[in-house]
Amino acid sequence: MKLTRQQRELGTKFWIYLAALVVSVICVFPFYNAILTSLRTGQDLFLTSYLPTTFHWENYVSALGENGVGRSLLNSFLVATIAVGICLLVSITAAFALARVRFRGRKYILFTILCVSMFPQVAVLSGMFELVRFLGLYDSIGSLILSYTTFSLPFTVWVLTTFMRSLPVELEEAAIVDGASLWVIITKIFAPIMGPSLVTTGLLAFIGAWNEFMFALTFIISNENRTVPVAIGMLQGTSQYELPWGHIMAASVVVTIPIIVLVLIFQKRIVSGLTAGAVKG
Amino acid sequence: MAQLTLEKLNKRYGDAAQVIKAIDLQVNSGEFVVIVGPSGCGKSTLLRMIAGLEDISGGNMYIDGTRVNDDTPSERGIGMVFQSYALYPHMSVYENMAFGLQLAKLPKDEIARRVEQSARILQLEPLLQRRPKDLSGGQRQRVAIGRAIAREPKLFLFDEPLSNLDAALRVQMRMEIAALHRRLKSTIIYVTHDQVEAMTLAQRIVVLNRGNVEQVGTPLELYDHPANEFVAQFIGSPKMNLLPGTLVSSGDTESVVRLWHGKQLTVPIATPASAEGTKVKLGIRPEHIEWGTVADAPYLADVLFVEHMGNETYHYLDSGKLGEPWVVRNSRRSDIAAGETVGYSLPPEHCHLFDESGKAFARRAVGNGASCLPGMDAPPITFAEPARTNVMH
Amino acid sequence: MTHNSESLLPSAAVAPPPTASAPGRKRSLQQRRARAAWVLVAPALILLFAVAGWPLLRTLFYSFTDAAMDTPEEYNFVGLANYLDFADGERFGVLADPLWWQAVGNTLWFTACSVSLELFFGMLLALLMNEKFRGQGLVRAAILVPWAIPTIVTAKMWGWMFHDQYGVINDLLLRVGLIETPLAWIAEPTLSMWAVVIADVWKTVPFMALMLLAALQMIPSDLYEAARVDGATAWQRFRRITLPLIMPAMIVALIFRVMDALRVFDLIYVLTSNSEATISISGYAREQMVSFQEMGVGSAASVLVFMMVAGIAACFLWINRFSHEGKEARE
């Protein structure tokens, strides 16, 4: 029997909703599971129950306090903000030149920046280690601000360049006719218009810096200077073989929630930023 | 108010061919000149070179006798209106208009005076605190013009300013721009691809094609005395019909052409004896072809199709093997239908004649009897006042 | 460079001196802008050289020395010994280390598996998101969650889910009846790489899906309507319209992901503690450098990592160039 058009459409709808449901569950479940675990202590941890059984907040208290995750949050915030701030400041002028001015070597600079953004971090690790020691920054968050520029700067320059390119040329020409110098064009015309793009780019770079692990693991040894990823990676139990899963999950939830909230608030911008950087690559 | 002189101005990008080829042009103080041409003819490039947004590869440019080749746009003292308006989206209308003046470090009260004055001229006063995104297309266009006016430039440049507007608004803005010119008496160079805009706005039109100036002249000069086939077909809509033929006999006052179908026509156009026997093209505008009866008329043709515009009617006549049909325009309604055979005649006094290379043979004047050969090295026409009557000297 | 650009304007240089009032020789707009452009990019370039170029050069330099991590100032040149050395009929150096080759294999296997799975699932997800249905915003928010979660947290979360005794994965598989006894996902060498791949795919499919979705949304819908009118089936529409049109964006997303996967370190370091079965080349290099304090050997491994990644990137760009020939010419 042939299905009517309506029946077929209904069938398609059903599969779409089912797929959407499955996708959402798979995406959210691991984090949900982490929250579940973080609310359990002692033997409850080893229950494999998919609904909340107990609400113990002790894990959060000890994760934030004893294990120094609170301090790490502050470190991560400082490092990511300063590194991204410097990168944005430097890249806005560079992006303007790369997007708007025809000059010899522009193509090579863009290519170099793209290459550096694909550098494996380990390739600069020993050289960076030497530089960090030379500057006396070893085991301080200064070392991370310096080293995070390695990957943040090419990213911000690249994304801002693509954003700048999408602004109409005539806007800049109108400013030239009005007698604006390049500096005025950048600071009075482009920077204000680019505001939202700057936020997007900054946010993406911030997340990248927030999540960085290798440099943070290598250049920081003392507990109080650790960033969030290292603090979580290094959380140890009393014995070597028993990991404090409740604490780890509590700390994970704590450091993830700010990022998830940020991402959900700036959803649309983040998606446009992610794709702007890549689609034109 | 300034005079602009272009001297062998040219432009090339790298090693590529020239996009602007040795252009000579003089624009007089207070004159409204329209540069018109098909897309890609280099008209926008030329305007941007005049503005200083595009480097000049060769030749000289003078404003009031001063060479300005390497001056910045603001040093040249130009005001420009862009196709997309290019208003600063983060500034209010007032700030948009004041920006250039602030950069020029004018005193505050002077800025306020100028902005308010141009706002008054363009009726923008109630909008001064709005952002561009809250304005309609026509309002944005006015702000863009206002921004240019506020700078009190020596030279106004318009780059296809009306092409983003809908048809009705375009006619209205066209009249406003014309009125503005009458009021400000400023020198305006206006670029468009639309020959109607050119005809209605210009005191003089510059027809540009592939980086060359094809002809410079008043609108009616271009219409009545096109210098070549390109101008003949570019100016006027529907475009001029071109009928192939051979020059049978030449003369100082009259020439005889044998048309493609063998019939001969005597036209009041001077041709040199050397052209005798060469192929020529006879040009006639759609409104100049006259109907006759099938019995009397010298030529017959089948009507391919008819377009009724209401106020006028276009008939497309089968041109046989020549391909493109002729167009006949009637200002009255007509009951001639497609498929009918009609008789028509070509009034000799309305015919144009072009040689093999497309260059026009000099026509005797039409209209008010003045005679002139536009596009030659005649001195540029000056206007005592900017009224757009049928002025010839 | 400036000499060349000045000679671009022959007529300006040859032109007779202009009227008396003209100012002295000035640079043209383009020249002034080009000059200013260098000033504007200079800070970024200098900074980039300081944090990327210079450290890379120093890494290369150290790869020829026997420096140790705690005393990098004391070193001797050892030539290529860190890479490969022959002594007493035996071979030494990174290239002679079976663990290095194991790491190379692991990395390539990881990259191939996770990127192809990501592409597959990413495409499905993008096609789903491209449909119109209620609650789309919620699904979009949900798929951003894995992307937003820090990699280390991902590693810990999945580590817990893969726990052999109390992990959710084993529990679910047991309940469904797919396995009889719990699997040691992390400890078992044959399974641990799959654990890493699964966690990585979970985290990065959203990125891929968003990229592909952006490309999908650029396809004008009347193309599909035209194809429908022409009687194309859903599969034909996908194969003949969608795929060719999103190919450029797909290749770019693919390059991004491959480059990212090749330098994987944190996920493996935390999830499987750099076990031999999963260690990546980045992990190997860092282990030599930090855990064994062998700065020279570690640097040599780093240089090899760099060369390998650069080589693969060059291959990709070379392939991609064919499809972008026209674009390049316009630049």
Automatic annotation (TrEMBL), chain A:
Claim: Transmembrane helix is one of the keywords in the record: yes
GO biological process: transmembrane transport
Coiled coil location: none
The species this protein was found in: Aromatoleum tolulyticum
All residue ranges annotated as the ABC transmembrane type-1 domain in the record: 73-266
Gene3D superfamilies: MetI-like
Domain of life: Bacteria
Protein name: Palatinose ABC transporter membrane protein
Stored Pfam families: BPD_transp_1 (PF00528)
Transmembrane segments: 12-32, 77-99, 108-129, 141-161, 182-210, 245-266
Automatic annotation (TrEMBL), chain B:
Keywords per UniProt: ATP-binding, Cell inner membrane, Cell membrane, Membrane, Nucleotide-binding, Transport
Domain ABC transporter: 4-235
UniProt keyword Membrane present: yes
GO cellular component, one term: ATP-binding cassette (ABC) transporter complex, substrate-binding subunit-containing
InterPro entries: AAA+_ATPase (IPR003593), ABC_transporter-like_ATP-bd (IPR003439), ABC_transporter-like_CS (IPR017871), ABC_transpr_MalK-like (IPR015855), ABC_transpr_MalK/UgpC-like (IPR047641), Mo/tungstate-bd_C_term_dom (IPR008995), NA-bd_OB-fold (IPR012340), OB_MalK-like (IPR040582)
A GO molecular function held by the record: ABC-type maltose transporter activity
Record-given protein name: Palatinose ABC transporter ATP-binding protein
Species annotation: Aromatoleum tolulyticum
Automatic annotation (TrEMBL), chain C:
Superkingdom assignment: Bacteria
Main location: membrane
Localization: Cell membrane
Residue spans crossing the bilayer: 36-57, 108-129, 141-161, 201-220, 241-259, 297-319
Keyword hit for Nucleus: no
Span list, region Disordered: 1-26
Gene3D superfamilies (UniProt xref): MetI-like
Listed GO CC annotations: plasma membrane
Membrane-protein topology: Multi-pass membrane protein
GO biological process: transmembrane transport
Statement: the UniProt record of this protein carries the keyword Cell membrane: yes
Residue ranges of domain ABC transmembrane type-1 in the record: 104-316
CDD domains: TM_PBP2
Keywords of the record: Cell membrane, Membrane, Transmembrane, Transmembrane helix, Transport
PROSITE patterns, per the entry: ABC_TM1
Pfam assignment, any one: BPD_transp_1
Family the UniProt entry places it in: Belongs to the binding-protein-dependent transport system permease family.
Protein name, UniProt field: Palatinose ABC transporter membrane protein
Organism this protein belongs to: Aromatoleum tolulyticum
Upper taxonomic lineage: Bacteria, Pseudomonadati, Pseudomonadota, Betaproteobacteria, Rhodocyclales
